[in-house]
């Protein structure tokens, strides 16, 4: 794959392409215990550790977008779902759970690694038992973002503040079942994963004129960081202490983004540099913001760490590692525009999904998610260690 962009300067999408992007990208993905002023830096690793180093992690809680939604959108009034074939093609019994991939998500691999469960279920699933709930759930909703405008573009999805409200509701259920003290311990000893932000840029800022008229890119990043600050403070006020926050991946390398921005979507499949550059700028500011939050935190023994989605993803795409032969198109259909309802039971699939980094034109395959989960394992182990 040519990682050099064929479109280096912002050439904002035509009205036609904007409509396609809103419709198809709607479900997009997209520091130590305080003692005085000692703050841990970024803990990013490239290798995997075979098992968790913690014996005290109680549960896993996940917030975000389609990169971490295991099926919450199945239970809200939105057309943007992944609960139909070929999604779930390699999940046990080929069940299309609502995950926007062929199998498991990063959060599923992390949950198994820390020993709490094999699959993180959607909180809104009415079939969940109290035991299912006790070891953790995902509140994530495909199509969501930190900018309040983003989830209104993508009809019916759960805004980030609503995900926090559901977490509050969750705690009330746990208190009724196990009492306040046990619930407090459960919440304190849990691991928290946050994965969102891509939709704010790819679906919102770079597509619609609304935010562009209000903010230049640096100002918009600052605006999103303010929303993140509020979200993080709310989460920590509810008891979260071990938080992994995923950075943005190289958004300009998403197959659909390439298709809609390339000079020639068929022959020029290089990443769109100005969009990936926005991710790098955001990530740098995010790290500083989380460092400040950790340093100034009045919350006892909190740990916050960046889960580096950018470096690992870019390295794989650039060098075509781990047997990936196709990194500019997905396995579903042509792979250059099919996603959500355009990737369906009538859409042909590639012959060997193991050679594809992307499942559809937006979301990675289970294999890709598994490899990315290995890259962040040292950071996860840092967060949950005793």
From TrEMBL:
Q: Which family does it belong to?
A: Belongs to the 'GDSL' lipolytic enzyme family.
Q: Which UniProt keywords apply?
A: Hydrolase
Q: Does the keyword Zinc apply?
A: no
Record-linked InterPro entries = GDSL, GDSL_lipolytic_enzyme, SGNH_hydro_sf, SGNH_plant_lipase-like
GO MF entries: hydrolase activity, acting on ester bonds
Report what the protein is called.
Answer: Hydrolase
Q: Cite a single Pfam family from the UniProt record.
A: Lipase_GDSL
Against Gene3D superfamilies, the record matches this protein to:
SGNH hydrolase
Query: PANTHER family from the xrefs?
Result: GDSL ESTERASE/LIPASE EXL3 (PTHR45642), OS09G0540400 PROTEIN (PTHR45642:SF3)
Lineage of the source organism? Eukaryota, Viridiplantae, Streptophyta, Embryophyta, Tracheophyta
């Amino acid at each position: 794959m040519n990682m050099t962009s064929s479109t280096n300067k912002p050439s904002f999408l035509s009205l036609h392409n904007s409509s396609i992007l809103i419709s198809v990208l709607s479900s997009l993905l997209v520091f130590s215990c305080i003692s005085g002023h000692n703050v841990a830096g970024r803990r990013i690793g490239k290798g995997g550790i075979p098992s968790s180093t913690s014996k005290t992690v109680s549960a896993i809680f996940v917030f975000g977008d389609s990169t971490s939604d295991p099926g919450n959108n199945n239970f809200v009034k939105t057309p943007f779902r992944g609960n139909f074939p070929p999604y779930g093609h390699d999940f046990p019994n080929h069940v299309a759970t609502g995950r926007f991939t062929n199998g498991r998500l990063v959060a599923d691999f992390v949950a198994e690694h820390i020993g709490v469960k094999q699959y993180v279920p959607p909180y809104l699933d009415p079939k969940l038992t109290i035991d299912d709930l006790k070891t953790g759930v995902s509140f994530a909703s495909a199509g969501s973002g930190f900018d309040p405008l983003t989830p209104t573009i993508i009809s019916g999805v759960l805004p980030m503040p609503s995900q926090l409200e559901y977490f509050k509701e969750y705690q009330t259920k746990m208190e009724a079942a196990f009492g306040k003290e046990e619930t407090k311990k459960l919440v304190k000893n849990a691991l928290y994963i946050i994965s969102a932000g891509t939709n704010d840029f790819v679906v919102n800022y770079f597509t619609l004129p609304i935010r562009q008229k209000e903010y230049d890119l640096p100002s918009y990043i600052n605006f999103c960081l303010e929303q993140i600050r509020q979200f993080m403070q709310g989460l920590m006020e509810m008891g979260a202490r071990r938080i992994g926050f995923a950075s943005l991946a190289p958004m300009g390398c998403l197959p659909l983004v390439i298709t809609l921005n390339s000079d020639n979507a068929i022959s020029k499949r290089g990443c769109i540099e100005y969009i990936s550059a926005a991710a790098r700028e955001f990530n740098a500011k995010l790290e500083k913001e989380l460092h400040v939050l950790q340093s100034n935190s009045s919350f006892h023994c909190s740990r916050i760490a960046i889960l580096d989605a950018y470096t690992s993803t870019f390295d794989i795409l650039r060098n075509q590692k781990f047997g990936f032969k196709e990194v500019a198109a997905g396995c579903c259909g042509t792979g250059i525009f099919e996603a959500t309802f355009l990737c369906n039971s009538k859409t042909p699939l590639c012959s060997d999904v193991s050679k594809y980094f992307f499942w559809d034109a937006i979301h990675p395959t289970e294999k890709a998610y598994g490899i990315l989960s290995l890259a962040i394992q040292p950071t996860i182990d840092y967060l949950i260690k005793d």
